[in-house]
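[scheduler] slot 2 assigned
[scheduler] job type: sequence-to-structure, two independent chains
[scheduler] chain ordering preserved from manifest
[runner] begin chain α
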Amino acid sequence: MPNTRQSATPPTFPNDPNFADGSSTVSSCAMPHVLSIAGVDPSGGAGLLADLKTFSALGAYGCGVVAALTAQNTQAVTGVHVPPLDFVRLQIDTLFADVNIHAVKLGMLASADIVATVADRLAHWAPPNIVLDPVMVAKSGDPLLDRKAISTLREGLLPQALLITPNLPEAAVLLESGVPQNAKEMYRTAEALRNLQPLNSPRWVLLKGGHLPSNELLDLLFDGDRMIELRAQRVETRNTHGTGCTLSSAIAALLPQRTDELQPMEAAVRDAHRYLQVAIANADKLSISKNNIGHGPVHHLYDIWRRAPFERPSAFSDPFGFPRF
């Protein structure tokens, strides 16, 4: 099928005060309910906690199913605990039995059994707008997915996902190929990833190129026909922990709000991409890691904190020094 290249307009740096008003028309439907099925990062920079912050920042009501627990900070993952399969299944079934879910973001699933359980329950409940972030390795380099789970993920979850969002090393694992080294190889990789998905229905690949050594970042959004380039300038900061989680959860939050767009997926991805770039640009304001040793999180709530600081009585004592940006 023919490919049409399109380049996205780079986001404004370092702040974009107009973004909160929405660059795309938000539908008039009620606030979407978005579910994250992912692992817990106690530092709050990635995983389920980061997803919930992102949902809230972008106007979605967040729900969560815990698929894994980690002992983790900004420097390392020191342990992973996988909850019992029956309890993961119970979390999913109990939630879907009562709550309308308009989109699902899938993150760290840890093991083949968890992947299979999640795939089975999603097939049963059939929610719309499934965004799969195939989390495999933490920013610290620690593994977050059992290698034995790759084939289960490829066969059980990829066919159900409307969008997959691998980075370059994750794409190489999914394809059992080498890691792309340049933009030309990224194009071929995006095409190969799309061939892993059902070809007879709308599906998308967002291939993230942040691992390439360039000051200009390139991501590719591909639906089997159009290859859309999303470009941004790299921000010089150590604080990029959870960028993949944040981008995929932002897309999941925005998809139900972009249904009146001519191209809902493209609109949601462009806005999510823009949101992430500004969150990265504001990341250094958080100073989460002691002595700035580790990889801190992006600033998920930069716009909320900037626009709506808490109003306090004049006599209120604030020993924590709540930041006002």
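[runner] end chain α
[runner] begin chain β
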Amino acid sequence: MPGGVLAIRGGTAESGWALRAFGNLGVTRQIAPVTGDAVYDLASVTKILSTTALVMAASDRGLTGGLDAPLASFGWTGPSDTVSLTIRNLLSHRSGLPAWRPLYLLGGTTREERSGLAREAILRERPLFPQGSGTLYSDLGFMLLGFLAEELLGGPLDELFRREVAGPLGLGGSGFGPLAAGGFARGETDSGAAGDGPPGKGGGLPVAPTEDGFRCGGPTGWPGVPILGPVPPGRVHDDNAAWLGGAAGHAGLFARAADVMRVVDSWLESFRGSGGTVSRRTVTEFLSLQGPENEEGRRGLGFDATAAPSGRGVLFGHKGYTGTAVWFDPAGCGALVLLCNRVHPTARRGGMDAVRAALLELAFGA
């Protein structure tokens, strides 16, 4: 990776964060040192910072009818084995839905039309196993959760994120792309808090680049997919998310480290019952492992989970395809945030899992 921002929080309720920026924004373009306020494409970390946070908010207000409510209970129609999928199994990747499909091939012109096409196509998918009987990580499931959040909370995802997450927490360097030139403006947030402002106002925070040669859609090497030249900074790297206008349930969010840190702090506050934006009951349920105890790959609700390197407790968080990672210990209050762009200048780069594992050991190994 060309560079990034690393932040680590100490392991007590009173601890603060230590933040360090390193390297350059890019190596073939934007060859400038990374600063602590650099904005990165979060990739699948979107799943917890936006989609899971929004479903938590809806659940906290009783809008879901319970996390075991099936999609059919919201008036959704389709084959019985898809509309019977529950919010809980979608959140924990236990729905049986496939991991990915090239939905960008469905066409459409407006985001509304494309969202409808995507939802219909996903609901036509046949789960690969009965829901609740196993775990299969699925972007498709989180796309459905994004559509559901829009219905339950009343608005498109980008507006919901500003209203339900960024506004209450005073975040000024986070939002869905595509970002206009200049990214997030320095000034005031949408909530009126001092700091930085909404995207697209110019003269703002630096946005790190991703791939120099991007696909029309699909993983690198997908048959028949041409290379169209560099992803503009502020355009989401994920092609299904880009096709949906930049905001989707599985990817699309951009953020600076300080804002990610603030969201993690709010979850820790809720877990301790000392603040936060949702109740302690709700965040505790979402931070509970799902599935049988002897099953590999158990997750929380929306959150990935891994054993702490120290052997004490479970960490919750998520990783992103662009190299990003967020992990925190609800019981011990320690946390780690890594923002980077390992897909620049190309996604054909390995070794990121080893880097993230080493950082986990650094933050949580003692």
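[runner] end chain β
[qc] chain β: The longest strand covers residues 3-9.
[scheduler] slot 2 released
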